[in-house]
Amino acid sequence: MTSSRTDFPAPSGSEWWRDAVIYQVYPRSFKDSNGDGMGDLGGVTEKLPYLKQLGVDAVWLSPFYLSPQHDAGYDVADYRTVDPRFGSLEDFDRMREEAHRLGLKIIVDLVPNHTSEDHEWFRAALAAGPGSPERERYMFREGTGENGELPPNNWKSLFGGRAWTRVPDGQWYLHLFDSTQPDLNWENPEVWEEFRAILRFWLDRGADGFRVDVAHGMIKADGLPDWDEQVHMVEGTDSADDAAAATHPTPGEDPEGPGKTMDTGPYFDQDGVHEIYRDWNRVLREYPGERMLVVEAWVGPAPRLARYVREDEAQQAFNFDFLVAGWHRDRMRDTIETSLRANSEVGAPCTWVLSNHDTVRHSSRYGLSSRTAYPNGIGAQDEQPHPGQGLRRARAAALVELSLPGSAYVYQGDELGLPEHTELPDAARQDPTFHRTAGAELGRDGARVPLPWSPVGEGLGFGPAPWLPQPESFHEITVDHQLGDPQSTLSLYRRALRLRHELGLGATGFAWHPLSDEDQGVLAYVLPREDGDVMVAANLGDAPATVAELSTGELLLASGQDAVVGDTLSVDSAVWLKL
Ligand code: NOJ
């Protein structure tokens, strides 16, 4: 294993996004400023100073556009209008101005694979009928079977059930997600023109970048061939037509591992999709100020993903291999190696991400008995995460994530060690996955619960009647509690981000430490710096591990008060050392 692993020089380039820490705001659950139970842009503006003090460089906001909210805003009815639930364009301008005043960049979400059924284009397509130019903007097809009563092919929706819905005149339209999210036809130049215009609309309004939704999905294989492999079927369920489906990697107790759990099939990662990124790259270059694209592409293995961040395409791609690696030394080690290698070959920085609004929060995943558990939601009847173990590992993982070369993504609440809500009542669930699978898949609501800001105030300071109920466990871990506690997870994140900045972590080279090859379960590496190398060690093993540098180096940061005992690193702990 040692022989196949290498050291990496510091990545080239000085653009801000190369080593930025980017905080994901899920607007509906961040902060409610008008008391309607849902977070909004006013709430984001109010809390920007909190994010500045946390020490992040940029904020990515999940969609806040006009939408019927069948998929929490990833079903856009108008790409140029702010949904009144979240505010107005003026609220966006105020937020962006304040963010820029504080030195924070703003990244907005772009949803190009599909629109909402409420988008004026889709309404026009339904009204205009078969063969019309309006239908050509979407993926309408005739059915099969004697009278067209069967769908055009056997594709499944990623949210469960079939990927086709029939309209009254007999045609079918494709939706890789919910039936309220019709897929656009990216063979149509009008669609290209429209998305260039949408990019320019937000670039003109001062957006510093875009997170691209389902970035590997817009181009479908010629002829829309059947796809027999049931890639998204959940282990243990029947393979009936309406069997449960997962959003991305096949969920389960122990997915095969990084690079092997990604979306494949005739609707993902088709070569033609790269032409879109070349086109958008040119649009971004019309603007000053290092604008960027980060793609949400569940593509593996790493060299395949790296194609999205070639010099004339996107700037970043989320590293989901790292997210699904679990709390497992060898998988984390191999993911770091393959990601650094693949990205260095195309001159792009890596990204590191542990959680987002589509995954069970890592402080809960890490609390399950399997180190690589990747469930699609956790319910009251499921194994309950061990809160102590999960949080301890999450704190250690943060020190790994925030030290690696490249850019890091922090999902709102990561900095609080926030757990998943594992006891949400079914009646509260809103994720279309839950409904399309008749409850077989719990879905993502447990990771989307409104943030706890303070022990006093309605909705723990979020606002009255939060759209999802907050669990009891949130009462003791609010921002206000944690700000006053130097041992809290929030204090750990703040120290880590300050040190990261001071030491220039994120922009360093990388060298493996021999401990990463030993049997103790330690992940260790050295970040070379002119002003003294930094060593990072994390113990993912089952017993305290000897780390000689604990005696000789200077302890910069530890994941917990008991992380270091003499020259041993405790289980589920991590440290930063100056050598
Ligand atoms: C990925 C988004 O992150 C997820 O929340 C959404 O449901 C799907 N794409 C469909 O837009």
Automatic annotation (TrEMBL):
<comment type="similarity">
    <text>Belongs to the glycosyl hydrolase 13 family.</text>
</comment>
<dbReference type="Pfam" id="PF00128">
    <property type="entry name" value="Alpha-amylase"/>
</dbReference>
<protein>
    <submittedName>
        <fullName>Alpha-glucosidase</fullName>
    </submittedName>
</protein>
<feature type="domain" description="Glycosyl hydrolase family 13 catalytic">
    <location>
        <begin position="24"/>
        <end position="448"/>
    </location>
</feature>
<dbReference type="InterPro" id="IPR006047">
    <property type="entry name" value="GH13_cat_dom"/>
</dbReference>
<feature type="region of interest" description="Disordered">
    <location>
        <begin position="241"/>
        <end position="265"/>
    </location>
</feature>
<dbReference type="GO" id="GO:0004556">
    <property type="term" value="F:alpha-amylase activity"/>
</dbReference>
<dbReference type="InterPro" id="IPR017853">
    <property type="entry name" value="GH"/>
</dbReference>
<keyword id="KW-0325">Glycoprotein</keyword>
<dbReference type="GO" id="GO:0009313">
    <property type="term" value="P:oligosaccharide catabolic process"/>
</dbReference>
<dbReference type="InterPro" id="IPR045857">
    <property type="entry name" value="O16G_dom_2"/>
</dbReference>
